[in-house]
Amino acid sequence: xxxxxxxxxRGVNKWFGALNVLRDITLSVEPREVVVVCGPSGSGKSTLIxxxxxxxxxxxxxxxxxxxxxxxPATNMTRLRTEIGFVFQSFNLYPHKTALExxxxxxxxxxxxxxxxxxxxxxELLAKVGLADKVDAYPAQLSGGQQQRVAIARCLGMRxxxxxxxxxxxxxxxxxxxxxxxxxxxxxxxxxxxxxVTHEMGFARKVAQRAVFMDAGAIVESGTPEEFFSAPxxxxxxxxxxxxxxx
Amino acid sequence: MLENFSFxxxxxxxxxxxxxxxxxxxxxLISFAGALAVxxxxxxxxxxxxxxxxxxxxxxxxxxxxxxxxxxxxFLYFGLPRLGFVLPELVVGILALSLNSGAYVAEIIRxxxxxxxxxxxxxxxxxxxxxxxxxxxxxxxxAFKVTIPPLLGQAIVLVKDSALLSLISxxxxxxxxxxxxxxxxxxxxxxxxxxxxxxxxxxxxxGLAALSGRWLGLQPxxxxx
Lengths: 247, 225
Fold this sequence. Notes:
The complex is a heterodimer of chains A (247) and B (225).
Chain A: E1 7-16, E2 19-29, E3 34-38, H1 45-52, E4 60-65, E5 68-69, H2 77-81, E6 84-87, H3 99-109, H4 115-128, H5 144-156, E7 162-166, H6 174-189, E8 193-197, H7 201-207, E9 210-215, E10 218-223, H8 225-230, H9 235-245
Parallel strand pairs in A: 3-8, 3-9, 6-7, 7-8
Antiparallel strand pairs in A: 1-2, 1-4, 4-5, 9-10
Chain B: H1 7-46, H2 51-66, H3 69-82, H4 89-114, H5 118-126, H6 131-161, H7 173-184, H8 187-218
Transmembrane segments (chain B): 25-47, 59-78, 90-109, 137-159, 185-205
Subcellular location (chain B): Cell inner membrane; Cell membrane
Function (chain B): Part of the binding-protein-dependent transport system for glutamine; probably responsible for the translocation of the substrate across the membrane.
């Protein structure tokens, strides 16, 4: 209770109707820590990270993010969200905006950064994710992997303290997965606090300090990625890993 | 069969038809602007979560869509003066068309906004935008594109509906046809001529719809350099 992480779940519960989608979640993520969340579909992993920026609300327990308790009247959720980047499985780029405009929209209108400055930063970010030549392209003209890299640049444009990734490579063709993971590794290596819902073991082993396994809304197992992927402790995680590793 | 058909009379009445056409065009334009205003307000009310605004908006839209325009027009024209509001015919006519068409426009706008995927809202929320910023920067620009073609369809309906204003003696296009029909007893000439003018207006709006469709369709494909 004394120790406060960047993201702190304390006995969090959430229901969708009668379904207990998050069961008594207690989890603390330290600054600069990278935590990978995995588990079978419907286990609550997406819901877990969507609670952190308030895309979902919790029923009971405490969720403290960057020192602010969610649901507290004193917490300005809109303000807090500017500190939290969120990368969606389906990218959710703005189709009517170019890559650069996607990256600069929130910095200009939410952060109130002058346009020229935001555009300069936006170009640099797009170059960083390997898309310097796609600055003026619309999302429809980009491949899935390119769109997801723009989406990551869009989050970075807000200079967030935390980045959340909700199955960022699940909607991608296999040959595009690594280009996105490479960018995520680079972000992690710069010391970003990250929670990543993914089954990409290579990524987890490379940059994550911790892997968390969820099943039926509860955290079943938690350990270093090395321990978890090579020697899972519970039957459920063993069964799950045997399924995703079979091929 | 056509020896009784008098082109000469039509030509003789052309200035009258011309005036009627001009009146139909500008009163339709004003009415459509009014319909857009009514529609925007109604759709905004209708999209609220709380019932306070949503229920009255829904009730209004249902009432308009369930009753004939002619009944609405007569209510405004004959009913309002009895309630103490005496307005010129033209104002009553424009009011009726705006209020009527506004209900349909509201549904078009609402459908356009709801057609934008949930993920777009979430992307805006996640980047810390307020409701107003999300609407202005993310949702409405996209919804706008989707709504243009059906809105022009509604404009076509409105132009045709404006013919009903002839019944409250607004000197628009249909009224011009009626005058020729009754003055000279030439209903064939009168009504075929106005039909031709309505067709002309229809093609103008249809052309505009096609143009806007092509323009909107082309926009996202602007080539990257």
